């Protein structure tokens, strides 16, 4: 997570030099300051990290107020409070200064309310001041305060928002940052809000639709193992002392149960290691890439996820695309926002180099990446021929939005059908296995021997 640092130094002319930067750690910040010092010929003297301080102040009317504020030092915050006419009672550093990521719902609400207020022609600084009191998340409130303070201090909007990309998300921070530079902030905020709402709606729908089948399968597997490993051997094991040949399924099940008794620690240990290893691997950059590469090729759900990724790409592309000028950065941002690392890499390593180095047209370069559907390629081709690429991208996004919404229901039904078939097969197996016991008929000699 990026942290803010403030550095101070002295130039060769004797003038003081200061500035701010972001880095993941103090050691990385020192390296960046050293590079800046070497490049700009100044000597670094001090480096301070921006931290959260707790303060207690007394207003002129006698009211005592407590709060927290970020600053580079205790003295800096104390001076700022005194300039506001407040009597500082106490200022101390917050012991556990964890920077939590704001809830997704709060971020969506912030962008949506900002879009609505901007449509009413309300000044942006007033929008931020108004939303600070309406946001329930403390971490998001702090982000809004920091952005507002940076904007008032003269910082560019893009830089102010990108400082908080770890809290807001790369796409959201980038879109809100460039909104101030565009001709219509309200449109950018509206498009961003719609994109975030759509993405969140899809995730919640998938989660809600999949939770019941997932629980059903897990419980069924647990019950199956319990029956085969414990209950069935307790019943079928009564025939072990009879010198008779057991039916093949019963014999195999008893053999499996005995093997599990002897090796269950190894079995569960290996399963646990495999699961932990798989989760750890897919969290790596390489693992995420491979998972996303094969995920869009899965039967039934793969096509749905692929079209969702293309929908997001087209939506972002339509928001940022301009008919003239350099749109390579637009394609790069849209690729990063699509949510699939495989598609992102293909677009960045095939489409963009083809356009920049070889001068290939947009449609041919997109086709070369081999991650877009034929329908998407055809729509972009039509838009390129008629000069309506932006409208074509928006139409493609709207079409896939409607299609994925409809197909999600069909996909859920297919998954539920597959779960039902799985349950039926498991029940049939247990029924046949239990029925075999009824066919075992020990002789009277065996009974007397027992």
What does the model show?
- This protein has 450 residues and is mostly helical.
- 69% of the residues lie in helices and 11% in strands.
- It has 18 helices and six strands.
- It has helices at 26-40, 74-83, 104-119, 124-134, 138-152, 157-162, 165-168, 170-179, 185-236, 248-282, 285-295, 301-320, 328-337, 341-357, 362-368, 374-386, 389-439, 444-449, and strands at 3-11, 16-23, 42-49, 51-58, 64-71, 87-93.
- The strands form two sheets. It has a three-stranded antiparallel β-sheet, with helices on one face. The chain has a three-stranded antiparallel β-sheet with strand order 5-4-6, covered by helices on one side.
- The longest helix has 52 residues, at 185-236.
- It starts with a strand and ends with a helix.
Strand and helix map with partners:
Layout: E1 3-11, E2 16-23, H1 26-40, E3 42-49, E4 51-58, E5 64-71, H2 74-83, E6 87-93, H3 104-119, H4 124-134, H5 138-152, H6 157-162, H7 165-168, H8 170-179, H9 185-236, H10 248-282, H11 285-295, H12 301-320, H13 328-337, H14 341-357, H15 362-368, H16 374-386, H17 389-439, H18 444-449
Antiparallel strand pairs: 1-2, 1-3, 4-5, 4-6
Helix pairs in contact: 3-4, 3-9, 4-5, 8-9, 9-10, 9-12, 9-17, 12-13, 12-17, 13-14, 14-15, 15-16, 16-17
């Amino acid at each position: 997570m990026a942290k803010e640092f403030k550095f101070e130094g002295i130039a060769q002319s004797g003038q003081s030099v200061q500035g701010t930067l972001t880095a993941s750690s103090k050691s990385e910040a020192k390296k960046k300051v050293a590079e800046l010092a070497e490049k700009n010929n100044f000597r670094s003297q001090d480096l301070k990290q921006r931290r959260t301080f707790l303060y207690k102040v007394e207003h002129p009317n006698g009211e005592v107020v407590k709060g927290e504020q970020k600053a580079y030092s205790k003295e800096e915050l104390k001076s700022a409070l005194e300039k506001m006419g407040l009597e500082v009672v106490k200022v101390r550093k917050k012991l556990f200064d964890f920077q939590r990521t704001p809830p997704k719902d709060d971020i969506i609400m912030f962008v949506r309310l900002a879009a609505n207020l901007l449509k009413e022609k309300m000044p942006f600084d007033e929008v931020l001041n108004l939303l600070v009191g309406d946001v329930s998340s403390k971490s998001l409130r702090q982000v809004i305060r920091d952005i507002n303070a940076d904007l008032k201090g003269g910082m560019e909007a893009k830089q102010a928002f990108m400082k908080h990309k770890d809290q807001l998300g790369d796409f959201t921070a980038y879109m809100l940052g460039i909104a101030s530079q565009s001709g219509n902030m309200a449109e950018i905020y509206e498009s961003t809000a719609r994109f975030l709402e759509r993405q969140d709606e899809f995730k919640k729908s998938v989660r809600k639709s999949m939770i019941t089948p997932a629980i059903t399968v897990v419980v069924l597997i647990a019950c199956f193992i319990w029956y085969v490993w414990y209950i069935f051997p307790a019943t079928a094991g009564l025939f072990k002392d009879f010198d008779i040949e057991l039916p093949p399924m019963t014999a195999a099940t008893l053999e499996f149960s005995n093997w599990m008794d002897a090796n269950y620690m190894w079995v569960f240990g290996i399963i646990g290691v495999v699961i932990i290893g798989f989760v750890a691997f897919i969290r790596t950059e390489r693992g995420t890439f491979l998972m996303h590469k094969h995920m869009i090729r899965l039967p039934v759900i793969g096509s749905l996820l692929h079209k969702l990724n293309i929908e997001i790409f087209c939506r972002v592309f339509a928001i940022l695309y301009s008919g003239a000028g350099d749109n390579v950065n637009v394609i790069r941002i849209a690729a990063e926002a699509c949510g699939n690392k495989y598609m992102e890499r293909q677009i960045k390593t095939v489409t963009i180099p083809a356009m920049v180095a070889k001068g290939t047209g947009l449609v041919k370069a997109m086709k070369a990446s081999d991650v877009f559907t034929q329908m998407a390629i055809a729509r972009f081709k039509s838009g390129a021929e008629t000069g309506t690429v932006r409208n074509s991208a928006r139409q493609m996004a709207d079409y896939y939005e409607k299609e994925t919404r409809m197909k999600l229901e069909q996909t859920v039904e297919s998954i539920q059908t597959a779960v039902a078939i799985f349950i039926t097969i498991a029940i049939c197996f247990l029924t046949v296995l239990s029925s075999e016991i009824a066919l075992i008929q020990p002789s009277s000699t065996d009974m007397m021997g027992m």
